[in-house]
């Protein structure tokens, strides 16, 4: 199987995904002649379009991406703040000689 990702960007992307500990969603390689129903994407696209008429596959993907981004934004920041507080507490415990009580 081959993917359409350019080799010089796929390594950078993999490193960035690893750096932020993001979850990777696997997908079949792009093929313009395969219907979305055959790739399992149909129900996901229907949910994100919410009855609106979309004019192109690109518009469908952009709306899906925007919807996913907005719905996960609060979760992303809350989780990030939780991790930041935990790290800060750990560092203060490790370096308790430097913290005034």
TrEMBL record:
Domain of life, source organism: Eukaryota
Molecular function terms from GO: nucleic acid binding
PANTHER family: MARINER MOS1 TRANSPOSASE-LIKE PROTEIN (PTHR46060), PROTEIN GVQW3 (PTHR46060:SF3)
Protein name, UniProt field: Histone-lysine N-methyltransferase SETMAR
Organism, scientific name: Hymenolepis diminuta (Rat tapeworm)
């Amino acid at each position: 199987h081959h993917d359409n990702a350019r080799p010089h960007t796929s390594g950078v992307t993999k490193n960035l995904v690893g750096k932020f500990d993001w979850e990777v969603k696997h997908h079949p390689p792009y093929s313009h002649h395969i219907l979305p129903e055959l790739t399992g994407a149909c129900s996901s696209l229907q949910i994100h379009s919410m009855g609106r008429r979309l004019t192109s596959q690109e518009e469908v993907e952009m709306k899906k991406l925007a919807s996913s981004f907005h719905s996960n934004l609060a979760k992303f920041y809350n989780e990030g703040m939780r991790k930041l507080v935990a790290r800060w507490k750990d560092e203060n415990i490790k370096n308790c000689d430097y913290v005034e009580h």
